[in-house]
Amino acid sequence: MNEYKKSTAYHAFSSGGSGGRHLIKRLGVRLQSIPVEVSMGKTLNPKLLPVVDQSFAWQLSPIGITSTPHCFFILLSDCPPLGLESLRVEDNQIQASSYQRTGLGPHRGRLNIQSGIEDGDLYDGAWCAEYKDKHQWFEVDAIHLTLFTGVILQGRNSIWSWDWVETYKIQLSNDSVKWQICMNGTEEAIFQGNKHHPEPPVLGLLPVPTVARYIRINPQSWYSNGTICLRAEILGCRVNGNPNLNSIVIHLKDDLDFRHHNYKEMRKLMKSVTEECPDITHVYTIGRSYTGLKLYVMEISDNPGKHELGEPEFRYVAGMHGNEALGRELVLNLMQYMCREYKKGNQRIVRLVTETRIHLLPSMNPDGYEEAYKKGSELAGWADGRYSFEGIDLNHNFPDLNNIMWDAQEYAADPSKVPNHYIPIPEYYTKEDAMVAPETRAVISWMQDIPFVLSANLHGGELVVTYPFDCTRDWAPQENTPTADDGFFRWLASVYASTNLVMANPDRRICHYEDFQRHNNIINGGAWHTVPGSMNDFSYLHTNCFEVTVELSCDKFPHMIELPMEWENNKESLLVYMEQVHRGIKGVIRDKMTKQGIPDAVIKVDGHDHDIRSAADGDYWRLLNPGEYKVMVWALGYLPSMRLCHVGMQPNPTLCDFILMKTPVQRLKDIQAKGGKIPQDLQLRIRAMRLRKLRASTKAINRRREGQRLQKRRARAVTAGRI
Hints:
Helix 3 (263-276) runs parallel beside helix 4, helix 4 crosses helix 13 (563-579) and helix 10 (486-499) runs antiparallel to helix 13. The chain has five domains: 18-78, no CATH class; 91-238, Jelly Rolls (Sandwich), CATH 2.60.120.260; 263-579, Zn peptidases (Aminopeptidase); 585-662, Sandwich (Immunoglobulin-like); 664-723, no CATH class. With 723 residues, the protein is an alpha+beta fold. The chain has 15 helices and 30 strands. Strands 5, 6, 7, 8, 9, 12, 13 and 14 form an eight-stranded antiparallel β-sheet that branches. The active site is at residue 551. Its main location: secreted. One of its GO terms (cellular component) is extracellular space. GO terms for molecular function: metallocarboxypeptidase activity; zinc ion binding.
């Protein structure tokens, strides 16, 4: 059986004209002779299916047939999915012969759809027929004529039941009344479904690609201890020249590389961007994966390679789960987009580049991605490539600092004195034999080296933005667990969700079994499900950086034809989220005498039980919502300083600089260390300070003595019987 890959590029050419030659160079040409069944009868044998519009070559979506001299073609073996998994196929396009209950209706028969923890609700993990016989069917209406080339099948997703289809037939129709069975020569074709397990997607290619409107899957055998249940995706090329319900028709504004990139192709694309924009880009590595693949980061800044005083550092991290591929491609698209728009003079991009140091990590788990990429997007299933090569879930692999902090607060006499920031990594975690992935160690070192202010972690498989804490107290499976900055985290999550074209659509269908529309498509991580050792929580508790997780789409590994639309869905969100790094207050904390920046100064905002620290140059950034704040700053060896800082509604930071004076004791130590002479004013200050301490201690001694005398008097009075 031929393996189908969604990531396989389309191959196109023109029968004449320079445009065709350009496409040959860009997409390549691979001829393949495939018989085509047209109109349920007449058989043709073209090498390629002609397509009407040159725009297809850029959209990677066929929209019609033509016989004109200058036309474009698509290999029949490359026909994309209709969109059951991506939800482009509407519920009303799917029917079935019967179903056990609403939660197992035909609308649930979508590839990779997930069920809830409990069976029996409205959101089970498959279509399941009411009866166990060979007359059951699952039908999809493509709305218009489609060249069907294959079917991908899975069994039921459930932690309680095992159900799958082992063999099936395929029927096709133009009117949903008269049906023709797919033939393999002179015999009815029998397609293989799942064996031994319901989860792996199984591809069945039609012996003869056939043009029709309707397609039916007709199960013939199933798991002996189960029932007829399936999830499916249909492969087919649209051949109707009139776009309609489930066509992808978008007007591309950005000429970007919309395809899936393996490791070598990703490196090549990043190199091409640096060559195109050498003045604002720089590629560096932060480490290697378990198999030795480098973790590449692209920096975008007007002064790449250097931290500029007062300029905040931002990062996007994608590909933590290797099979969640959309984030990887969006980050690569973002690199191209920012480079080209900067060159065009787009003022929004110019402002971002000149005022922000941006770091883009497209693949935190390159080993996992390569595993999923080799299988192809539809055939990777729900979990293949999710974990690192060692089998580690990287989003559970960071130090669990939450419970360290909560335990300390529980046992402390004064919980407010327990450190709420820069919580150290426990010693056991740093040992060589600790179960810590090299990818995780690399990212932790990266976080410690660069004073990041804001970040987002791009995932896939849902449509929601989650914010810390991800880990719940007392190991509850679900519990709202807010941080001290809950209001600002909710703002960050809302900024992305409200500008994402799919999340913001009130009529969209839920992905799997949770309706996040009720929460405006944002949710506290712990309220969704507990994730101890998450990158979000670690970032907040160990560094200054605020971070959220963005679940970008229902489909973890969308087909390449979906990528242009997904870019349009997320472009504004990606940009506006980056701009939030400029909210709140910022400034430089300097020594009064030397005017040098003070590193590791603690910045405390009254009413916010989470502090941050200044960077190596003394600069700091504190993300805050609009309001008036009392800000206190102190550092080792310095007297504390306080001032009021006002944050306005505009997305521009309020400048709040601080000048700190060293304590007299620290000044004395510095002078003595240099062998210098103590100035008279310092001598007087130290003498005055010692006198104050002496007076205070004398008063304390006198009060203690007076108390002792009173106790003795009372004791004598008791003895004398006067009390």
